[in-house]
């Protein structure tokens, strides 16, 4: 079906201030964004609380990695199916059901913790349930943004989503660290149950008749194969997904790394753990603002931000000097957000709306599945080899993969690096060895 594989152009110029915030003119998106900032704050609070709760109950950093894995592993099993579901079933309905499941699950866990009857198996089981809900919700949540704002406002909406999400990430860990130290983990999880309930209400109040119509795909054979062929034929999607694998597995398990740093390397406890998460989230908030003002959206951006992300992550585990460590955490937040924003926006804006749910499911499957595997791997490394070496490995693997891919792309396109000392703004540029003939 030609319409499904028709490419969509990406942006190649700096968006204006008005374009960056155009999505806020849409009523449904304003509801969504308001629910997102509450849900993000509550979600970060619960994430910090659950990771620390597992550590308190067991004293085992590796089990913290398993808790992280259980939240992401269902994506490996359900991710592609969830993408097909997203292209067939109204995404508004999918979000409503999955958020309701999250509300009930978080409410039960909060009750168990507050009444003193919680056991580690219960924490892990509920982490798995919310992981399943998140796996089903992921493709629909990402693709639903374009239904609310349309393709021409999508890049600005993605930047606003990231800014709002990481603003919640800035507040959530700090609040959670205070609550954990003062009254324990239960109240942080209870707040998350309340914020997901608000999200259910916000989704229910949306004006569904104002959503951008998207053709629903009928049940048919070969829809997953069609999406695989589509993604493989587009280098912007293919290589972005390839680079996402090492980043997700090794570089995106900060809960494990930060728990190890707070518990073993620096001995700062729950308060330090909350502070470290806040520093990363603060950097990510800055990164989201920088990302919204970028002129270009190219595969080279994804490669470059991966190199920076790997280098800064390695710096965090360099020599154990505390000022360098906390400074590097801010840099991790900035570069991680710039990478994630470039990768997600490039995949979404390079995909036709009729097949977007399935292609986005590949992105989420790699992201979450990689984090699931990485939670176990990095948990074992942190537990047995130490937190500093874990940070070094978490940065080195993505860095090396990005350098190899960048060298390969440069060789195929016959590119070279040009240094121009007379123009600081264009100090380093990538140019072709042989100019193209028009």
TrEMBL record:
Gene3D superfamilies: MFS general substrate transporter like domains
InterPro entries registered for this protein in UniProt: MFS_dom, MFS_trans_sf, TM_effector
UniProt membrane topology term: Multi-pass membrane protein
Domain Major facilitator superfamily (MFS) profile positions: 27-438
Subcellular location: Cell membrane
Residue spans crossing the bilayer: 21-41, 61-82, 94-113, 119-136, 157-181, 187-206, 239-261, 273-292, 299-318, 324-347, 359-382, 388-410
Lineage top rank: taxon: Bacteria
Keywords: Cell membrane, Membrane, Transmembrane, Transmembrane helix, Transport
Xref: PANTHER family: INTEGRAL MEMBRANE EFFLUX PROTEIN-RELATED (PTHR23513), STAPHYLOFERRIN A TRANSPORTER (PTHR23513:SF11)
Name of the protein this chain belongs to: MFS transporter
Species per Swiss-Prot/TrEMBL record: Homoserinibacter gongjuensis
């Amino acid at each position: 079906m030609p319409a499904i594989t028709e490419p969509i152009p990406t942006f190649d110029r700096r968006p204006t201030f008005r374009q960056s915030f155009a999505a806020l003119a849409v009523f449904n998106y304003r509801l969504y964004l308001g629910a997102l900032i509450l849900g993000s704050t509550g979600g970060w609070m619960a994430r910090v609380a659950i990771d620390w709760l597992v550590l308190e109950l067991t004293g085992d950093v590796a089990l913290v990695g398993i808790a992280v894995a259980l939240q992401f592993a269902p994506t490996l099993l359900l991710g592609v199916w969830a993408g097909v579901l997203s292209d067939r079933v109204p995404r508004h309905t999918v979000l409503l059901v999955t958020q309701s499941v999250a509300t009930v699950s978080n409410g039960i866990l909060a009750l168990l913790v507050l009444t003193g009857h919680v056991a580690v198996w219960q924490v892990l089981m509920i982490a798995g349930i919310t992981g399943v809900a998140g796996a089903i919700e992921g493709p629909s949540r990402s693709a639903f943004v374009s239904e609310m704002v349309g393709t021409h406002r999508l890049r600005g909406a993605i930047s606003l989503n990231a800014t709002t999400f990481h603003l919640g990430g800035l507040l959530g860990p700090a609040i959670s660290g205070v609550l954990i130290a003062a009254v324990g983990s239960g109240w942080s999880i209870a707040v998350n149950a309340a914020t997901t309930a608000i999200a259910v209400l916000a989704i229910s109040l949306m004006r569904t008749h104002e959503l951008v119509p998207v053709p629903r795909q009928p049940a048919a054979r070969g829809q997953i194969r069609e999406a695989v062929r589509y993604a493989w034929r587009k280098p912007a999607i293919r290589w972005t997904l390839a680079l996402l694998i090492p980043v997700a597995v090794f570089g995106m398990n900060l809960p494990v790394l930060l728990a190890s740093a707070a518990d073993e390397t620096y001995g700062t406890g729950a308060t330090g753990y909350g502070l470290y998460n806040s520093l990363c989230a603060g950097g990510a908030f800055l990164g989201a603002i920088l990302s919204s003002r970028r002129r270009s959206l190219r595969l080279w951006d994804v490669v470059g931000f991966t190199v920076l992300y790997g280098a800064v992550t390695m710096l965090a585990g360099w020599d154990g000097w505390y000022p360098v460590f906390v400074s590097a955490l801010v840099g991790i937040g900035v570069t991680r957000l710039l990478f994630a924003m470039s990768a997600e926006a490039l995949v979404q804006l390079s995909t036709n709306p009729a097949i977007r749910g399935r292609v986005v499911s590949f992105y989420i499957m790699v992201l979450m599945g990689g984090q699931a595997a990485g939670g176990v791997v990095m948990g074992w490394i942190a537990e047995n080899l130490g937190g500093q070496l874990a940070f070094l490995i978490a940065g080195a693997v993505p860095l090396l993969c990005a350098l190899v891919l960048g060298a390969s792309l440069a060789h195929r396109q016959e590119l070279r690096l040009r240094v121009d000392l007379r123009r600081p703004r264009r100090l380093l540029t990538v140019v072709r060895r042989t100019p193209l003939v028009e």
